[in-house]
């Protein structure tokens, strides 16, 4: 199963490594035509404003919306989660506006700009190692969104059908189980299941 990693800006090589550890094939996606060859797309961490700008410039906003409308899974991590959100706190313009949630950028404040922790994630049997770097938080989700994990009462992992999002960087540790989870979503979607 080919999993694409949007390669406009951000942590691309690390995601490809985690996908390969999980048993998939990682592909750096730089052109919209490549979306035809992948079964799922990861939007990596980095700077959401930059990623959003480059997505607009290279036609990825429409192309990824079409990709998702076909039922193909999309996974946003950190800045990628911001890119997926329908609503951004503070009135900022959303980017893909695909996932029914409100997201606050840089929500941990200066003292806690980056930290690591072990998180209980629904669907993963033991705690997942997670690295937070200037991370966003999910403030609120629609009723069609499943909360998969919380950190200090705040939502940090969520799923809406074939869309997956997390506030942290799952690609910066050797714990590839969230990538494995996403790979399974892509396999199920390819087999024509609903993915729920
Ligand atoms: N590590 C990250 O992806 C940080 C996200 C970044 N703070 C943003 O707002 O886009």
TrEMBL record:
Enzyme Commission identifier(s): 4.3.3.6, 3.5.1.2
Keyword match Lyase: yes
Oligomer and partners: In the presence of PdxS, forms a dodecamer of heterodimers. Only shows activity in the heterodimer.
Reactions listed under catalytic activity: aldehydo-D-ribose 5-phosphate + D-glyceraldehyde 3-phosphate + L-glutamine = pyridoxal 5'-phosphate + L-glutamate + phosphate + 3 H2O + H(+); L-glutamine + H2O = L-glutamate + NH4(+)
Function: Catalyzes the hydrolysis of glutamine to glutamate and ammonia as part of the biosynthesis of pyridoxal 5'-phosphate. The resulting ammonia molecule is channeled to the active site of PdxS.
Protein name (database record): Pyridoxal 5'-phosphate synthase subunit PdxT
Pathway the protein takes part in: Cofactor biosynthesis; pyridoxal 5'-phosphate biosynthesis
GO cellular component terms given for this protein: cytosol; glutaminase complex
Family (UniProt): Belongs to the glutaminase PdxT/SNO family.
Protein species of origin: Cohnella zeiphila
Pfam families named in the record: SNO
């Amino acid at each position: 199963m080919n999993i694409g990693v949007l390669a406009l800006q951000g942590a691309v090589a690390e995601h490809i490594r985690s996908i390969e550890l999980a048993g998939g094939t990682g592909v750096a996606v730089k052109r919209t035509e490549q979306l035809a060859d992948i079964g799922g797309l990861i939007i990596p961490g980095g700077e959401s404003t930059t990623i959003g700008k480059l997505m607009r410039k290279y036609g990825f906003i429409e192309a990824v919306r079409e990709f998702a409308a076909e039922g193909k899974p999309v996974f946003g991590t950190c800045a990628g989660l911001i890119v997926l959100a329908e609503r951004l706190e503070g009135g900022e313009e959303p980017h893909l506006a695909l996932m029914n949630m409100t997201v606050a950028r840089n929500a941990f404040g200066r003292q806690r700009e980056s930290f690591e922790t072990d998180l209980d994630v629904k669907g993963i049997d033991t705690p997942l190692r997670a690295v937070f770097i200037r991370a966003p938080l999910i403030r609120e989700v629609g009723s069609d969104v499943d909360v998969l994990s919380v950190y200090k009462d705040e939502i940090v992992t969520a799923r809406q059908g074939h869309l997956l999002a997390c506030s942290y960087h799952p690609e910066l540790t050797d714990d590839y189980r969230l990538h494995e989870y996403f790979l399974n979503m892509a396999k199920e979607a390819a087999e024509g299941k609903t993915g729920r």
